[in-house]
Amino acid sequence: AMGVYLGKQSAMQLASQEFNLDLYAKAFVDAVKDAPLLMSVDSCVVFLNKYEKRVREQEAAENRKKEEEFLAANAKREGVIQTESGLQYEVVKMGEGEKPTASSKVKVNYEGFLLNGKKFDSSIDRGQPAQFALNRVISGWTEGLQLMPVGSKFTFYIPYKLAYGEHGAGSVVPPYSTLIFEVELIEIIK
Q1: Helices (H) and strands (E) in the chain, counts
Q2: Are the C-beta atoms of 72 and 120 separated by less than 8 Å?
């Protein structure tokens, strides 16, 4: 059971990387049997930290490039409007109500997606609209929702600098991620 479990864990972690399975197995067996190691444990930690940093930097560079390409192409699509900050949006349905201010508290239904189409958040899936103050969310939301009269539904294309930036949001949103949100403004809460 332990072998299967550790093997599957290792396979998931190493799936996108080139590695020598025979050398990996030897290092594993040597460590378990307390045999002489090819590297000291301290050297392994230093190596793996540097390796992980390099992988994160490569992923960040790839995300930035994908973002730039996506946003440049998206800005040319009919119906997409880009603000001075770089926020892009499409009007799906224009409401006729009041528009919120940056300090308004709002009630919305939304779904959030990464550029690869993966849904990472949804008030709809939770079965309950979200409520929050606009000055307590990512700046792309603060700016975008102020463009929406109550009753509107917009799609926002939010560049990383207006979203979760170079750090991302935990394991849910990778660093340098452009986010796509489908947002319906239900109410300004007074």
Answers
A1: 5, 7
A2: no
Q: Is the Cα torsion angle 146, 148, 150, 153 positive or negative in sign?
A: negative
Q: Which residue has the tokens 């390796």?
A: 51
Q: Which pLDDT score, from 0 to 100, does residue 51 have? A: 86
Q: Which of 113, 121, 124, 132 is catalytic?
A: 121
Please report, for residues 122, 129, 131, the alpha-carbon distance to residue 186 in angstroms, rounded to integers and kept in the order given.
15, 8, 10
* Per annotation, catalytic residue among 28, 113, 120, 132: 120
Residue type, 37: L
Distance of alpha carbon 182 from alpha carbon 169, whole angstroms: 19
Asked if 113 contacts 180 with a C-beta cutoff of 8 angstroms, the reply is: yes
Residue 186 is a catalytic residue: no
Give the pLDDT of residue 16: 64
Label the pairing between strands 88-93 and 179-189: unpaired
For the chain, residues with pLDDT lower than 70 are: 15-16
Catalytic residue among 157, 181, 186, 188: 181
Q: What is the pLDDT of residue 2?
A: 86
